[in-house]
Amino acid sequence: MRIRQAAADAAELGLCFDRGQILRKERYTVVYVLSKDRRPLMPTKDHRKVRLLLKARVAKVVKRTPFTIQLLKTSHNYTQEITLGVDAGSKTIGLSASTETQELFAAELKPRNDVVELMSTRREFRRARRNRTTRHRKARFENRVHSKHRGWLATSVEVKIHNHVQGIKLITNILPITTIRVENAEFDLQRLKAMEEGKPLPVGTDYQLGEMYDQYNVKQYVLFRDGYKCRCCGAHSKGVKFHVHHLESRKTGGDAPDNLITLCESCHEKYHKGLIVLPAKAKRKLRPTRDAAFMGIMRKTLMERLVKLFPGINVCGTYGYITKYWREKSLLPKSHINDALCIAKHPAAKRINTHYLIAPKRSHNRQIHKATINKGGVRKLNQTPKYVFGFQLFDKVLCKGKECFIFGRRTSGYFSIGKLNGDKISAGINCKKLCLLEKRTNLLIEEETRGAALVAGE
């Protein structure tokens, strides 16, 4: 009877139930509540009341993760002042919504970092196709996007801004947020580079007289820097033709001057054929500053878009030294969620014992064929069927009592499943042993129990 009652309760909550597993009552520490017209109300921890509302059919489940219900009858619309702190970042975004006394939502969002590689691969395919089919077509420079639209940003930057907005929208849809406070870091790239190279720090006009001053492009600067000599064989006569070589591929390292060296035509050709090896001195010494550049580019645009997208919410910014002051004053360990709580200026709020991991995923892969050409000049299709045995890629399933996601599917019926934090549950498990919990969406959300170090401020 107890298992049957647990199954009935699970069905009311919209959960998948396994007979070997009784529903845990403390599974959801906070239940988020929407009004009849889908306006967010204050959340609750009274699980008993939530169960009674669902059984009485005066409320329904609208979202499983984070667990959200909607009231079907009119109710009071009492809310409190809730501040959402956003620790903006290029690789990890910290989110924390809280009142002065209680933290209500905490999450880490991992924005997409695969767009640079995907765009570079698309450019390779496009150039190869145009070289084969429209080799003699004139260049149409007036069709460039940045020449038609002012304020145009690169796709990789646009995706990161969109991921920030996605995470903020997710929270504003379930909580009555009154203030959004964002910390946008601004990095001095010239100062960071001087510190790594051990050179004097730039001051005043040094920022205008950079390393490429009086050079009209990067290639000319690299040739001038290397003294018009091959870095491999040392050739420097007038009849030698020089090439600028990428130490790391353009896709990985970009066109930064520290990623470029001068090679003669002969050494460049021999290197790519694998006949010679570059000397040890011709290695990239500085760390890439791509993430710092991302933050500098998106900082202003992100704030402008948040003001437009959330007109009824007070959007303001803050600085890193203020966040550091509140974190050290409250003796909180360094983490993205703790920083977000300090950005909201509620470091003394009581912490919730769970947080969410959020990972945005693209909806569709538009590449039709794989790049590798098989025997007979045939390329395999790159796209797989949308459903394999009724499951989509990134569906949330229940396996061995654990909630996980499908990261790989095979037509044999054996899937690869794991968690968003990188833990692999199984590299090949029969799909018959999986129970579907949630269909995939653009945002994959996983709930995790927070460690003792993260709740030290409670």
Q: Which terms would index this structure?
A:
globular; 7-stranded mixed beta sheet; single chain; disordered N terminus; Nucleotidyltransferase, domain 5; 458 residues; alpha+beta; 28% helix; 19 strands; disordered C terminus; 5-stranded antiparallel beta sheet
Biggest sheet, strands in spatial order? 10-7-4-5-6-11-19
Strand content bin: 15-25%
* End-to-end distance: 39 Å
Rounded Rg: 27 Å
- The average pLDDT is 85
Whole-number tally of structural domains:
4
Low-confidence stretches: 1-26, 452-458
What would your notes on this structure say?
The chain has helices at residues 2-12, 47-55, 115-133, 145-148, 155-172, 189-197, 218-225, 250-253, 265-272, 290-309, 320-329, 336-343, and strands spanning 32-34, 59-63, 68-71, 83-87, 93-98, 103-109, 179-183, 242-246, 260-264, 314-318, 354-360, 369-373, 379-381, 396-399, 402-408, 414-418, 424-430, 435-438, 443-449. The chain is an alpha+beta fold and 458 residues long. It has four domains: 2-71, no CATH class; 83-113 and 152-187 and 290-360, 2-Layer Sandwich (Nucleotidyltransferase, domain 5), CATH 3.30.420.10; 203-272, no CATH class; 364-441, SH3 type barrels (Roll). The strands form five sheets. The protein has a seven-stranded mixed β-sheet. Strands 17-16-15-14-18 form a five-stranded antiparallel β-sheet, with no helix packed on it. A three-stranded mixed β-sheet has the order 1-3-2, with helices on one face. Helix 5 (155-172) packs across helix 10 and helix 11 (320-329) crosses helix 12. The two termini are 39 Å apart.
